[in-house]
């Protein structure tokens, strides 16, 4: 099955919604994902065809039942979601990364043909194309985009890293200064949907942080250009260069550089499993933000939750990708039954039903916790990208306080995840695959590196000399000890002479240093 609409070969005007894009998918991805579905053992639909009505999503949910009776294998599948744990994704990604590293631009052109069915007129998209896309864009959509840019800018400016100086002892100053990166690469996905919102999530914080040059990669449609809305977003966000490149190839190009694509200092942005895995694989040569792969949502719902709303939120995130993970942990059996019933009702009418069903069958679930404590413990173990709390007061505040491992938390029913995806100003580029326990969402912090500096006054140097010398002696590093003791004041000159002589002797004889139990120095300053 291919989800690419055969009518979608023509480029959108960027004026309206991209329903066609809903069916965009690369042939290879589809094949791989089918393999994953087959492995899960869960049928995609009752007669195997995507068009058939689904009698009950309960049978389509990969995980049901009580949290405390999950078997070891289910628990592993729920929590071990990293792309690196998927051998097929890891191997395929490595092959693409190697190809780009070896063959540069030639590999990029070939990959666009193989994976995106695109013939690239050029790898770089000329500026006139993005300008034209912006000029042709609907005024209402442009206003919405400008509002998003404003809100992202406000939030990220407030969280901008600041320089700090501290004096741990008199005369010792240690400082830290955030220096903007010179060139960063932003990835905006474009396989099964177009993501202008991801352009803003990457580019606006980079600008706020003061990055000098921002390049953007987004997959080409068949005509060799990224989606018009993505190009318009690039123009609006004032990107410096745009490349019509998708998937792992784009990530490898930005990490290693090719004749056309410049090597960047950090790669940020979300994408499918191949994109997330490629970022992890190039992390040894180029910094990344986080493995922001297939979307995830965990909902904790108690008896106050509206089951229809919970189902709607789950379907919304499930429509991204068949590899999306959406799970509800209901506190109490009745809530779980109601959420399951709401899914039964809503899934058949989902516009992107085929994707939603595959996501629910692969990594979807409605589970039951007996208590809030049990639900929180599960959430911290699951470490979702998005965590929605549809829980009443006062429990919601207590639950929030105890959460540690979520990319971002949505508080209460009106805080739809969709608002965060597009417009609250928080960043939607967030860690997935269970790695929200280790990484944070994209922020201005990702666009700086810290320079620390330290100054020691002459008096402080005298005060440090003895103890630093002792530590250096203990490590068997007499040169260090000598450097430290060189600043002992004349009143301690005998110690200085002794230290310098013994250091010189040790260096000459290349002996290991032995701590000598020297007398202590009084600090009179
Ligand atoms: N975690 C986050 O912060 C976040 C935010 C937004 C979106 N997302 C996720 O981004 C993803 C977008 O995925 P998408 O597919 O729509 O667009 P995408 O741009 O990520 O992927 C499309 C690219 O995948 C590559 N590809 C296709 N078939 C392949 C194959 N068989 N082998 C290797 N590479 C192949 C192609 O190069 C293609 O250009 C979704 O999973 C969505 O959930 C995540
Ligand atoms: N939910 C995605 C993050 O997982 C972000 C997004 C962009 N557009 C729609 N949604
Ligand atoms: Zn979303």
Write the layout of secondary structure elements.
Layout: H1 27-40, E1 63-66, H2 72-79, H3 87-103, H4 105-116, H5 127-135, H6 139-158, E2 164-169, E3 172-180, E4 183-187, H7 196-209, E5 213-217, H8 228-236, E6 241-243, H9 247-256, E7 266-268, H10 273-282, E8 287-288, E9 296-301, H11 307-318, E10 325-331, H12 333-346, H13 353-363, E11 365-369, H14 372-382, E12 386-390, H15 395-402, E13 408-411, H16 417-422, E14 448-456, H17 458-474, H18 478-485, H19 493-509
Parallel strand pairs: 1-11, 4-5, 4-7, 5-6, 7-8, 9-10, 9-12, 10-11, 12-13
Antiparallel strand pairs: 2-3, 3-14
Helix pairs in contact: 3-4, 3-9, 3-10, 5-8, 6-7, 7-8, 9-10, 11-12, 11-13, 17-18, 18-19
The chain binds nicotinamide-adenine-dinucleotide, L-histidinol and zinc ion (ZN).
| CATH homology group of the largest domain | Nitrogenase molybdenum iron protein domain
- What is the level-2 CATH architecture name of the largest domain? 3-Layer(aba) Sandwich
**Could you say which overall geometry the principal axes of the C-alpha atoms support?**
globular
Overall pLDDT: 88
Quickly give the structural class: alpha/beta
CATH class of the largest domain: Alpha Beta
How many domains, in number, for the residues?
3
User: Biggest β-sheet, characterized?
Assistant: 6 strands, parallel
């Amino acid at each position: 099955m291919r989800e690419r609409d055969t009518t979608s070969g023509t480029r959108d005007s960027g004026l309206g919604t991209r329903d066609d894009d809903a069916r965009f998918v690369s042939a290879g991805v589809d094949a791989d994902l089918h393999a994953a579905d087959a492995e899960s053992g869960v049928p995609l639909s009752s007669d195997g065809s995507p068009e058939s009505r689904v009698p009950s999503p309960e049978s389509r949910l990969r995980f049901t039942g009580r949290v405390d009776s999950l078997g070891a294998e289910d628990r592993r599948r729920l929590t071990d979601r990293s792309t690196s744990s998927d051998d097929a994704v890891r191997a395929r990604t490595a092959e693409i990364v190697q190809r780009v590293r070896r063959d540069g631009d030639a590999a990029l052109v070939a990959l666009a043909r193989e994976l995106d069915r695109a013939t690239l007129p050029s790898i770089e998209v000329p500026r006139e194309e993005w300008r034209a896309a912006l000029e042709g864009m609907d005024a209402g959509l442009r206003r919405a985009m400008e509002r998003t840019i404003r809100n992202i800018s406000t939030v990220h400016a407030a969280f901008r890293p600041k320089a700090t100086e501290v004096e741990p002892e008199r005369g010792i100053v240690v400082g830290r200064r955030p220096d903007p990166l010179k060139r960063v690469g932003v990835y905006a996905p474009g396989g099964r949907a177009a993501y202008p919102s991801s352009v803003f999530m990457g580019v606006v914080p980079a600008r706020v942080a003061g990055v000098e040059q921002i390049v953007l990669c987004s997959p080409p449609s068949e005509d060799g250009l990224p989606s018009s809305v993505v190009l318009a977003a690039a123009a609006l966000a004032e990107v410096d260069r745009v490349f019509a490149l998708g998937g792992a190839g784009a990530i490898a190009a930005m990490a290693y550089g090719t004749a056309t694509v410049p090597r960047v200092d950090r790669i940020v942005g979300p994408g499918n499993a191949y994109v997330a895995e490629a970022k992890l694989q190039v992390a040894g040569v180029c910094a990344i933000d986080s493995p922001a792969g297939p979307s995830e949502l965990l909902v904790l719902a108690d008896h106050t939750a509206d089951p229809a709303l919970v189902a709607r939120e789950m379907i919304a995130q499930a429509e991204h990708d068949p590899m999306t993970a959406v799970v509800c942990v209901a506190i109490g059996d009745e809530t779980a039954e109601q959420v399951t019933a709401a899914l039964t009702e809503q899934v058949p009418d989902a516009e992107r039903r085929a994707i939603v069903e595959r996501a629910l069958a692969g990594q979807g679930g409605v589970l039951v916790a007996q208590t809030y404590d049990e639900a929180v413990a599960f959430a911290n173990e699951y470490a979702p990208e998005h965590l929605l709390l549809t829980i009443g007061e006062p429990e919601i505040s207590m639950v929030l306080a105890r959460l540690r491992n979520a990319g971002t938390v949505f508080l209460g029913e009106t805080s739809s995840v969709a608002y965060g995806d597009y417009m609250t100003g928080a960043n939607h580029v967030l860690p997935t695959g269970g790695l929200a326990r280790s990484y944070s969402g994209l922020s201005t912090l990702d666009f700086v590196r810290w320079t620390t500096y330290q100054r020691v006054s002459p008096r402080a140097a005298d005060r440090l000399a003895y103890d630093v010398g002792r530590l250096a002696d203990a490590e068997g590093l007499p040169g260090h000890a000598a450097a430290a003791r060189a600043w002992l004041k004349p009143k301690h000159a005998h110690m200085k002479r002794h230290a310098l002589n013994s250091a010189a002797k040790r260096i000459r004889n290349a002996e290991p240093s032995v701590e000598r139990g020297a007398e202590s120095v009084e600090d009179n300053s």
